[in-house]
Amino acid sequence: MIRLFDIAFSLLGLLLALPLLLLITVLAWFDTGSPLFLQKRVGQRKRPFVLVKFRTMAPDTASVATHLVDTTAITGLGRFLRRTKFDELPQFWNVLKGEMSLVGPRPCLFNQEELIRARQRLGVFDARPGITGLAQIKGIDMSNPKLLAETDHRMLVDLSPATYFRYLLLTVIGKGSGDRAPT
């Protein structure tokens, strides 16, 4: 049932946001010369996939967890994209392809070994990673791997169509700051 919601909402999101996606692509091209940010992340069953986002930092910025980002690398447009969460819009494509869900644990980097071990112990990798979830709404980022993995697990145990819609609604209205780097 949730996969059907993911397909419908990601397709609808891509279609409705197309003018905005095109505008951001053009602006980002002038901002960084490279509008999209592609990064290998840990997916369902620990399979790698390429996450797609709008680039918010200089192209030569080191690939690190969000809480470790050097804020001087974030561009002016990037600050706006992060604040509005518009940088996440291209992930609708990851959702449509089945690599992600709209709601699930945020996908981590392969070098975040402590988080990977904690999530593995709790079975978090049985689910598709998501654009948003309980941890993001509660403002829990990847700087506390144990708490993040426990929160992800709790979310997955309680996930139902009702909580799925609740997490989406709370994200849209701006609740929480989860994985957001300081801007």
Report the mean per-residue pLDDT as an integer: 91
Q: Which sheet architecture does the biggest sheet show?
A: 2 strands, antiparallel
Tell how many strands the DSSP assignment holds.
4
Coarse structural class? mainly alpha
Give the count of helical stretches.
8
Helix percentage: 40-55%
C-alpha termini separation: 36 Å
The low-confidence parts are: none
Radius of gyration: 15 Å
State which percent range the strand residues make up: 5-15%
* Pattern of helices and strands: HHEEHHEHEHHH
Spatial strand sequence of the major β-sheet: 1-2
Shape: globular
Strands, helices and their partners?
Layout: H1 2-16, H2 18-32, E1 36-42, E2 48-54, H3 76-84, H4 91-97, E3 101-103, H5 113-122, E4 130-132, H6 134-138, H7 145-158, H8 161-172
Parallel strand pairs: 3-4
Antiparallel strand pairs: 1-2
Helix pairs in contact: 1-2, 1-4, 5-7
What does this structure look like?
- This protein is mainly alpha-helical and 183 residues long.
- Helices cover 48% and strands 11% of the residues.
- Helix 1 (2-16) crosses helix 2, helix 1 (2-16) crosses helix 4 (91-97) and helix 5 (113-122) packs parallel to helix 7.
- The chain starts with a helix and ends in an 11-residue tail after the last helix.
- The relative contact order is 0.16.
Briefly say what this structure is.
Helix content is 48%, strand content 11%.
